[in-house]
Amino acid sequence: MEIKLTERKEIIVAGISIETTYENNNKDREILFSNFHNGKKELLSNYAKKSNEFYCATWLAGKSDSNGSEVIVYLLSQEITEQTSSFETKIIPAGLYACAKFPKNNNDTLEAWEKIYEKIYEDRPKTGYRSTSGNNVQPHFEYYPNGLDEDYELWISLEKDE
Questions:
Q1: Is the dihedral of CA 99, 112, 145, 75 positive or negative?
Q2: Residue 117 buriedness (CB in 10 A; 0-12 / 13-18 / 19+)
Q3: H or E stretch covering 54
């Protein structure tokens, strides 16, 4: 897997979200994508900058479920041209990101996320960067430049390693 370090500009994305845990990740993501395809995608296209580009922003909710598992939030979204209250919005801040491409047949995105995090950690001595942590954690995201059923990229925000 090749990782590229890339500067990105700030964007605002809007869409629908779901909270999940590592144990329920794949099942809950299927529900999110299904709900998005069943009506939300068409409504969101009225606000989208590019109708065929999609983002799935991901961040830790800062809480645990009743079993003590860490809660993850997924926001399946598109970059918007104007603010809307019809959908949940999130700012993906400008900054340095690690980016890796994955083929469309890679259905286990959780495994892909684990691989890119491991690679960033392994490359820390060489690059001088780590994924953002603590209060500085930014939403990381999946980027689908050619539609949700095509190849995708994972993007992780970086900070200087200390």
A1: negative
A2: middle
A3: strand 54-64
3-state secondary structure of 64: strand
Compute the distance between CA of residue 4 and CA of residue 70 in angstroms, rounded to an integer: 29
Place of tokens 């691989």: 115
Beta bridge partners of 89: 14
Instruction: Burial-class residue 63 by CB neighbours within 10 Å (0-12, 13-18, 19+).
Output: exposed
Residue 107's pLDDT is what? Answer: 61
Domains belonging to the chain, first-starting first, are: 4-160 (3.20.80.10)
Q: What does pTM read for this prediction?
A: 0.89
Segment holding 26, helix H or strand E? helix 25-35
